[in-house]
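Structure ticket #2291
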Amino acid sequence: DIPIINMQPELITPEQPTQPEKVSTIQAIKNFLITNLQLFSFIWLMGAVLLFLIKIINYLVFLIKIHKHSETVSCPDVKAYTNRIIETRVSDTICSPLMIGVIRPTLLLPKTDITPEQLQNVLAHEMIHVRRNDILYKWFASIVKCIHWFNPAIYFIGKQINIDCEISCDLAVVKEMDEQQEK
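Resolution: structure written out below.
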């Protein structure tokens, strides 16, 4: 017996390359974010820390400048508005009155002639800031701004907080005045 050899070639199917699964755009973004999460976290943290350090350094430089270029003055009229000890300083480096300091509040007045009536209005306004702890509130807003440094809306919100805070104090002062004093 002669073995019969099948001379027909076998049908060999070439190996089909496996097609990658179709990945949706959302899934691709998710994968990208997950793989780069540590990098993004590091960039965010460095931005927040850097912005906070810049704010602290600018504030300390401002305090040093104010203490160098100002002098302490007596202002017994402050007692009419608060029981807290408020240091009063006069400086030629500022153009409008302001309060600084959370722990040791300091009233800064420009080195200009102020009438007794103007001084009373300034004190009424600035002491409302002290009573409401606006300085602490503004620092909180600054910290939030440092945390959300990447969000452009937070810069607008920060400016709006300052504007609203000042308007609120002005309205509180005017509320206590008669019509003549308001003018």
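Closing remark: The CA atoms of residues 8 and 14 lie 18 Å apart.
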